[in-house]
Design a protein that fits this description.
Structural class: alpha+beta
Number of strands: 4
Helix content: 25-40%
Number of helices: 3
Distance between the termini: 24 Å
Shape: globular
Number of domains: 1
Length: 103
């Protein structure tokens, strides 16, 4: 399993509130438009308390100051601006939350 799939698997296993709170705290709007969701995008669908669904997906974003693209995770919910956070931060936070949940 690659690092992106591992992070998305952790996001599916953790409580949805933990994942959404992580994005609310550390996520920011991207400086570029989020491309439309494609069928083969790596993603996790999360069921929210109100019955709607949130999508966490991986994007590779190359900003004007970047030499190469960087992995970002984006939380998309209906009626809200997408929030993004750097891939390494997201993966590390999920791993820490997962360990704390099992302690």
């Amino acid at each position: 399993m690659d690092a992106i799939e591992e992070a998305l698997a952790l996001a599916r296993r953790l409580p949805v509130k933990a994942v959404t709170t992580l994005f609310e705290r550390y996520g920011k709007p991207l400086a570029v438009d989020v491309p439309p969701l494609e069928p083969d995008d790596q993603r996790a669908e999360l069921a929210l308390e109100d019955g709607s669904t949130a999508t966490v997906r991986a994007l590779q974003v190359r900003l004007p100051v970047d030499v190469i693209g960087n992995d970002w995770f984006v939380l998309e919910t209906a009626g809200a601006e997408p929030l993004a956070m750097p891939g390494p931060l997201f993966a590390a936070a999920l791993a820490a939350l997962s360990r704390a949940k099992h302690v």
